Amino acid sequence: QVQLVESGGGLVQAGGSLTLSCAASGSIFRPNTMGWYRQAPGKQRELVATMTSGSLTNYADSVKGRFTISRDNAKNMVYLQMTSLKPEDTAVYYCNINSYTLRVDYWGQGTQVTVSS
Fold it and tell me: How far are the Cα atoms of 13, 39, 59, 63, 68 from residue 85, in angstroms, in the given order?
């Protein structure tokens, strides 16, 4: 089992910045992909950004140029630096770790990000 704990969410004005953190613990498998997804009210959960243990990244078009994902493999941490935030970025942000080959997939409890206009 893997446990994921997110932190760093909150309320911010449009144009502001926030950094989310996610700490993974337990039986960490490698290689893996860690990332962030979000779910706004009434919408499906969507990919925000992911990064493999080999540092390959993938971003949603809506956040390219504004969000940056990073990870510290030694600490089993993944981060999401969010800048130029928009009201449409308001959502619950979830941390994820998965391995396609091992067919395992874990989620955090989520952290609320609210961007006011």
Answer: 8, 16, 15, 9, 12
Total length of the chain = 117
> Do the beta carbons of residue 51 and residue 71 sit within 8 Å?
yes
The per-residue DSSP string of the chain comes to -EEEEEE--EEEETT--EEEEEEEEES--SS-EEEEEEE-TTS--EEEEEEETT--EEE-GGGTTTEEEEEETTTTEEEEEE-S--GGG-EEEEEEEEETTTTEEEE---EEEEEE-
Do 117 and 87 contact (CB within 8 A), yes or no?
Answer: yes
pLDDT of residue 23: 97
Model pLDDT for residues 13-28, shown as the tens digit of each residue: 999 999 999 999 999 9
pLDDT score at 102: 85
Residue 86 has pLDDT above 90, yes or no: yes
Mean pLDDT of 41-60: 96
Sign of CA dihedral 41, 117, 22, 61: positive
